[in-house]
Amino acid sequence: MTAVESATAERGVSTGSAVVSFDHVTHWYGNVVAVNDITLELGPGVTGLLGPNGAGKSTILHLLSGFLSPSRGAVTIDGTSPWRNPAVFEKVGLVPERDSVYAFLTAREFVTASARLHTLPDPKAAAERALELVELTGAADRAIQTYSKGMRQRAKVAAALVHDPQVLLLDEPFNGMDPRQRLHMMDLLRGLGREGRTILFSSHILEEVERLADTVQVVVAGRLAASGDYRTIRRLMTNRPHVFVLRSTDDRALARVLIALPAVQGVSLGENGLEVHASDHGAFTRELAKASRTAGIGLRELIPADESLESVFAYLVGA
Amino acid sequence: MYNSTVAWISFRALFGRRRALLFVLPAVVLIVLTLALKSAHGTRPDWPSLLLAQAGIGAVVPLTALLVGTSVLGSEIDDNSVLHLLATPVSRRSVIVSKIAVAALVTAVFAAVPVLLAGLIAVGAHGLAFGCFAGALLGSLLYSAVFVMISAALRHPVAYALAYLALWESLLTRLVGGAKWLSVEQWSLGLAHAISNNSDLSSTLSLTPSIVMPALVLVAVTVYGTRRLSAFTLHAD
After folding, report:
1. Buried b (16+ CB within 10 A) or exposed e, A213-248
2. Residues A47-68: pLDDT tens digits?
3. How far apart are the C-alpha atoms of B157 and A7, rounded to whole Å?
């Protein structure tokens, strides 16, 4: 199942204090398997749920927040199932991906309403605190429909944080945020994680996960492809074989030159040019220019054929 | 069971959409129609009861309830904003009860009150006006509960609500004898008739079934709506 052994313990997170658990969870939408036999445990700290679009990240978050029931297996938060159990939201905050908020309310009204729905003793004070956390106090009396996408995201985060939840689930939380807002939100989530909360956020952007998450769960095609410390997974991603398509003044001669390079694993000549499998991305790109110049061959085109996130993830599944 | 914050958000959502302008339309038609008939000559002597029963209780109340009842929850489910309500520990029964209360109140204001006004214009402070007002209030509550339940249970609630009104209330309750026992319109007319004691008001049910059946159906609809909302699911895009 996994390409990387779980490094949770190495990161100093005690698995004994895990509050979120998936036990062999499968979920079908009709005949389509959205989540396939996933087992994981999340403890305090920030965990990134990484995967390409359609991989099953949102389904995992919907299962955790009780808006889907597992077709098989068990999902629990602090030992209780979230399905048909609204009481779970006493300790869980959810920031959905969809941009659907009560846009006719101001952010202050929206977050205060959320505090009242959580029956907090002082809803107004709790709302102020949450608005300050997301730096939205200045615009809090404007209707949400006048907000940019990033501001709406922050209003949603404030509403989800208003009751100081133990577990925070965020679906693509950085969508629409400008770089400054993104950094601030990352600082906020990192701080919440350090305070002992369990933060799970989904993203299809490697850099977001790299900068924020202590641990990573990589999901590909509904399966858990890798799980554990981000740096280990990143290393595995970087060191994977890379495929390039080349066009030159003499493809056949270039093939002979390239096959002799230590960074090249294989070369094949096709209709679209020369397909090269390189074991080391950096070494190959450095050696290619030098070797072709020495052989007197002109390079016309160099296309990395497997740089998409999907191909990186597909490699992890196969690894 | 009733949650004032859910109700407050629902009111704001109802009147924050352009669709709210439609709420007043059936009432305006009823009042204009009443004024026209009042000033016309040669009308049937029983026109006030026909107008209040068929146009008021039979059309304005269900149409207004349809617009309000499907907006109060269905629109929030359609655009997923209901998620912010459901991602809280508020019980689903509280959500349903509060939504029904809001829908019933708004329908009463935009449909039952106009029925009373139409009655006062047509016959003055007479038993017929007050009886039809009571019937319209009962209809406002029951239709609202049914349409909120449909919104919780089904996608495209407006289509199902229209089908219910056209097929069940307008057709089958007239063609099938036993169906009248399960008709909101007949319960409303039964109550209106019992209060007004007006012989022009045609009603097929007496007071007792017009009170007992709605109470049972209100409970059943609330329980079923709660069950369906508890199983509200989200699908990934």
Report:
1. bbbbbbbbbbbbbbbbbbebbeebbeebebbbbbeb
2. 999 888 888 999 999 999 999 9
3. 49
Q: What is the second-level CATH architecture of the domain A9-237?
A: 3-Layer(aba) Sandwich (3.40)
Nearest to A174 by CA among A208, A147, A138, A144: A208
The parent domain of residue B74 ranges over: 4-230
Look up the CATH number of domain A239-318.
Answer: 3.30.70.100
Cross-chain Cβ contact A67/B13 below 8 Å: no
CB contact, 8 Å: A32 with chain B?
no
Rounded Cα distance, B192 and B127, in Å: 9
Minimum Cα–Cα distance from B84: chain A residue: A101
What ipTM was predicted for this assembly?
A: 0.89
- Tens-digit pLDDT profile for residues A60-118: 999 999 999 999 999 999 999 999 999 999 999 999 988 788 989 999 999 999 999 99
Residues of B in contact with A113 (CB under 8 A): 5, 8-9
Q: Closest partner residue to A114 among B13, B16, B88, by Cβ?
A: B88
**CA of A179 vs chain B CAs: smallest distance (Å):** 26
Q: Which residues of A touch B89 (CB under 8 A)?
A: 86-90, 117-119
